[in-house]
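Re: the multi-chain job from yesterday

Posting the exact lines I submitted so nobody has to dig through the queue logs.
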Amino acid sequence: MTTKAYAARSPTAPLAPHSITRRQPGPTDVEIDILFCGVCHSDIHMARNEWGGAEYPVVPGHEILGRVTRVGAKVTKFRAGDLAAVGCMVDSCRTCDSCGKGLEQFCASGATFTYNAPDKHLGGMTFGGYSERIICDEDFTLRVPANLDPAAAAPLLCAGITTWSPLRRWGAGPGRKVGIVGLGGLGHMGVKFARALGAHTVLFTTSAGKVADGKRLGAHEVVLSTDADAMAAHARTFDLIVDTVSADHSLDAYMQLLKVDATLALVGAPPSPQQISAFSLIMPRRNLAGSLIGGIAETQEMLDFCGKHGIVCDIERIRMDQVNEAWDRVVKADVKYRFVIDMATLKG
Ligand code: NAP
Ligand code: ZN
Ligand code: ZN
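And the result, structure tokens for all chains:
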């Protein structure tokens, strides 16, 4: 099926209209008419080939929410007319150890990511949600709680699950002091989730203009990370810090804030290697960890939690043709706090 999309044709080209081919839905597939797609900083890293490995054209977008238009004969979870969502993965081997544990993102054969991954059905690479429609196996399609605003729920599919997963894994909850570094798309969801899970929540930001928003979004305390005294006042007090920063920054500055055996979990993916002093880890014993999105069952658990607690993202809706401008603002850390593309503006 010929499908309208927006693509980057090279690392330096702006996104521009493009036409892609989608497969006809197979027996276990769901066809989704995309209503909204969030703009993740990973879209920018990938389309600009900042991590390497991009194959052009790149059609980004992995915070996809839409309405089911058709389902295959064997589909049981969805019917035409349902709301449905697709996040960062559209398939995996389903038989390896990781897949068996619900960690499809770490599939031994490599999960099929929503864009820029080998497409098992059509050959070439997968294309993401900056497009009119997507076809996805029902096992990788998520249910969206009906009480959530669909535009504001779309970024839960990456920004939501990517912060939810480390907060759950490393035990954010009552009696624990949890830090979130960076108030962007991921960071603002990290603050909301840490607070909703009952942790004492501290936001670290480089932007003085985001302090009030940090508190409004749920942080008990907001620390300007450029203020050395304010940072020192928190030394050795944190159980967990989740770092969402997308660019070069000091990891040692955050390691110093951890208690013995506490963890700094990186989710931000700066393109260049970040330095760390051995002393940050050995004195006192501390952990440096990382986390990649979350599994499919865990993503559904996060969406259901959001439905129960009425949690969505703080978004700015844009037209498809405003996406290049939005990307420039994301790079300047000027997003409050996620851009979401109204995909009707691509179809019209
Ligand atoms: P974003 O909206 O651009 O937020 C990043 C935030 O980092 C900014 O708002 C800013 O917060 C802070 N920041 C930016 N440049 C900085 C610098 N030079 N020094 C210190 N702080 C800086 O990006 P996002 O969409 O949340 O994504 C964040 C990162 O996570 C990206 O690298 C993305 O690729 C990665 N990611 C990883 C996963 C995963 O599975 N691990 C999933 C999705 C995204 P302040 O203004 O508050 O300082
Ligand atoms: Zn993402
Ligand atoms: Zn697997």
